[in-house]
Design goal:
The chain is an alpha/beta fold and about 240 residues long. The protein has two domains: about 1-30; about 30-230, TIM Barrel, CATH 3.20.20.80. Helix content is about 40%, strand content about 20%. The chain contains eight helices and nine strands. It has helices spanning about 5-25, 35-40, 55-60, 80-90, 110-120, 140-160, 170-175, 225-230; strands spanning about 45, 65-75, 75-80, 95-100, 130, 165, 185-190, 200-210, 215-220. It has an eight-stranded mixed beta barrel with strand order 1-2-4-5-6-7-8-9. Strand 2 (about 65-75) and strand 3 form a beta hairpin. Helix 5 (about 110-120) runs parallel beside helix 6. The longest helix is centred in the N-terminal third of the chain and has 24 residues, at about 5-25.
């Protein structure tokens, strides 16, 4: 075969492969309800007071399989929409979960106890979620890990359920990957590409549009079918 022809064909195949991977990795950055419905994926959103205007009659026509609601932050902040939104979603037969936004200004134990004093964990709910993220001026690595593990221990001891951990994968590797004694389900945030590692939920974008909610909302894919999702629910 002519070397130039062989080189050109090889280059074309390589570029085609790169393009297909690029499309695949970014296909959920601008995901639409029509697309996800056609694919038959198990999907959901997460919400807080930032989604402050909801038309529930419109929302029910595009309702997700699950919703995570922000319950608390630190040791004193309860999300103002938590109780109402949790109640409405359950009335609509949507699987729900509650999450705590972790603060580095107070101990993990104190935050876990506050979270449990506010968050609702009923039969049929998803496990509680620890939302841990990078911030400016992070404390020492050992301090961060200690407080995160203390939070996890309290939740596990008082509920009998291992919390789901929300973070990006670099955060998980830095603070938790080799520190956890048992496996925890991961909810990974990555807006650029499919996460590495063993993840249960993937937050693909914060630019999702859904009927009944003004503005954007976070979109999440579940790594499995409905039967697997049901297997995670609190018994």
């Amino acid at each position: 075969m002519n070397r130039n022809l062989f080189f050109n064909k090889t280059l074309l195949l390589f570029l085609t492969l790169i393009l297909s991977l690029s499309i695949s990795s970014q296909s959920y950055r601008k995901v639409t309800f029509r697309q996800i419905k056609a694919e038959g994926k198990v999907w959901g959103i997460d919400m807080s007071h930032h989604q402050n205007k909801i038309d529930w009659d419109k929302f029910k026509h595009q309702k997700p399989h699950f919703i995570f609601f922000k319950a608390t932050e630190g040791i004193s902040h309860k999300d103002t929409k938590y109780s109402l939104y949790y109640k409405r979603a359950r009335e609509m037969k949507i699987v729900v979960g509650s999450y705590h936004f972790f603060s580095y200004r107070s101990s993990g134990k104190a935050q876990a106890n506050y979270f449990l004093s506010v968050a609702k964990f009923k039969k049929g709910d998803l496990p509680p979620v620890l939302d841990a993220e990078f911030r400016r001026n992070m404390p020492a690595d050992t301090k961060v890990t200690k407080e995160l593990l203390d939070f996890i221990k309290v939740i596990n001891a008082k509920t009998g359920v291992k919390p789901i951990i929300y973070c990006d994968y670099k955060y998980y590797e830095k603070y938790l990957k080799n520190k956890l004694k048992t496996k925890h389900d991961l909810w990974i945030c990555n807006y650029r590409k499919k996460p590495q590692g063993d993840w249960m939920f993937w937050q693909t974008t914060d630019k999702f549009k859904i009927a009944g909610i003004k503005g954007y909302v976070d979109f999440n894919l579940f790594n499995g079918n409905k039967e697997k999702l049901n297997g995670l629910l609190i018994k």
